[in-house]
Design goal:
The complex is a heterodimer of chains A (152) and B (329). Chain A has 152 residues and is an all-alpha fold. Chain A contains 7 helices and 1 strand. The termini of chain A are far apart. Chain B has 329 residues and is an alpha+beta fold. Chain B has 2 domains: 48 residues, no CATH class; 198 residues, no CATH class. Chain B contains 13 helices and 7 strands. In chain B, strand 4 and strand 5 form a beta hairpin. The termini of chain B are far apart. The chains are: A mainly alpha (152), B alpha+beta (329).
Chain lengths: 152, 329
């Protein structure tokens, strides 16, 4: 993973975790700076990912308090290019209704494509715990999606 | 010969919907052993609810796959990388665009308030108004007729100078002639006269005005205004009218003045012949009879009225007037 790749990954994490572009930029810069202090570019990508999980989780925890004070309207200013026909309302609902650990597990595992082992290493939990959280998060997300389909 | 069968026979692991849900992630990511995997498949085929669960799970996975194609722009990536230094953080924090909206609105509102207050306080509105009033056709102000003797020293008026002097003292040339033609006997003035030096200054300024010098006029106005503000506590009402039978009407006015208890206020008699075509009245009447006087005058002809502050203060309840009735011919 290159330096740009780290920056891209961190930025995407905070975009989905905060759903506010201005907050996401600030959090990304902070987390990126911390990651670059810990990451040795000579090491493999796997080792980066554990550090990224760890640092992004710490920064996210601080910003989550700010997020709870906002009305959680999605603030888009065009710094990210969304995939076409993406329903961000569903993701916002998932952010609001799911448990934080399950939400983050789905984000790291299925969106950012981090291996479960790196996630467990970054969070300091077992792989089984990570998979369990991911399973519950996906189940929650799936139930919301089905509800949306039925409403349509 | 030993058999390959296990020593302890395991019970068959039966599945339930709950167990299937718990293992769904492992099932779709192929993390189950073969036996468990086959059991899951069998259960899913038998259970419609579990099939729906699996479909929902797949939809959630597809949705996450779609989200994974998010692309940050290059400026954003550079911004994230470059914002790491403290100095840039400080610069970014000081940047107006990054301030919260309520703070911006508050500062803008405060700035507008300060500017408005500064304009209201520091611009000399009174002086501007005086200059504007003087420049309007070069004539003195015509104060609206008032029922009461409200003194307004701040108005742009000139004081009435000692009428005994032969020097012209009015703002325009016509007024200067009027005063210049006053009779020579000195008029006794009830309050003490203002100091000679101040009167001299005001006379000089008024003489300069008669030359229609706008710059001098404005300076004289300023000096007069200063004098006015300090000395003028009384008032004088001047009235001018033009009638055809001015002689007969002058007699009517004289009778009215005497009937209400009025008397001459200067040295000359009531209805003094200022010239062949003008009768001059300098008199005092009770204030309560002023409206009746005005009604008498205005029923005859249009009357111009000008009230000016004056150093001479009348007793309470009395007012001093100058009336000039001119011939229409």
């Amino acid at each position: 993973m290159t330096v740009d790749g780290i920056s891209r990954t961190v930025s995407n994490f905070f975009f989905y975790a905060l759903l506010d572009e201005s907050l996401a930029i600030k959090a990304s810069a902070k987390a990126y700076k911390k990651c670059m202090k810990k990451i040795d570019l000579k090491n493999t990508t796997d080792e980066y990912q554990a550090a990224i999980v760890h640092e992004t989780y710490k920064v996210w925890s601080k910003y989550q308090k700010k997020l709870s004070e906002l009305n959680q309207n999605i603030g888009f200013e065009g710094n990210w290019i969304l995939p076409p026909h993406t329903d961000m309302g569903l993701w916002r609902q998932f952010l609001r209704d799911a448990e934080p650990e399950e939400f983050l597990a789905v984000l790291w595992s299925r969106v950012l494509k981090f291996p479960d082992e790196r996630i467990s290493q970054g969070l300091g939990v077992t792989v089984g715990t990570v998979r369990h959280r991911t399973n519950r998060g996906l189940k929650k997300l799936g139930s919301m999606r089905v509800t949306v389909f039925y409403d349509e | 010969m030993m058999s390959n069968e296990p020593y302890i026979k395991r019970k068959s692991r039966t599945l339930s919907r709950f167990l299937c849900q718990e293992m769904m992630y492992d099932f779709v990511t192929d993390n189950l052993d073969e036996e468990r995997k086959q059991a899951m498949l069998d259960y899913i085929q038998r259970s419609e609810e579990t099939q729906e669960d699996l479909e929902a799970f797949q939809e959630a996975l597809n949705y996450c796959e779609q989200l994974s194609h998010l692309t940050p722009t290059e400026p954003l990536i550079e911004k994230v990388k470059s914002q790491s230094s403290l100095s840039k953080k400080i610069i970014n924090a000081l940047s107006w665009n990054n301030w919260p909206q309520p703070v911006k609105w508050t500062l803008q509102g405060a700035l507008v308030s300060v500017l408005a207050a500064g304009v209201a306080i520091f611009i000399p509105w009174e002086r501007l108004q005086i200059d504007l009033d003087l420049k309007s056709k070069g004539s003195p102000l015509y104060v609206a007729e008032q029922q009461t003797q409200e003194i307004k020293p701040e108005e742009n008026v000139e004081p009435e100078i000692n009428q005994a002097t032969s020097e012209p003292q009015e703002l325009d040339s016509s007024e200067a002639k009027l005063i210049a033609e006053e009779p020579t006997p000195v008029e006794t003035i009830e309050p003490p006269l203002e100091p000679e030096n101040k009167q001299e200054k005001v006379k000089e300024s008024i003489v300069a005005e008669n030359n229609n010098d706008s710059e001098v006029e404005s300076e004289a106005t300023k000096s007069r205004s200063a004098v006015v503000k300090s000395n003028l506590k009384g008032s004088l009402t001047r009235m001018y009218m033009t009638v055809k039978d001015f002689k007969e009407f002058s007699l009517v006015v004289e009778d009215f003045i005497r009937s209400v208890g009025g008397s001459k206020a200067g040295q000359v008699k009531l209805g003094w012949e200022k010239n062949q075509n003008t009768r001059y009245f300098h008199f005092t009447i009770p204030e309560k009879d002023y409206p009746n006087l005005m009604q008498l005058l205005r029923t005859k002809a249009d009357t111009r009225v000008m009230r000016t502050p004056h150093s001479r203060v009348m007793p309470e309840g009395k007012m001093r007037l100058i009336l000039e009735i001119s011939s229409d011919d």
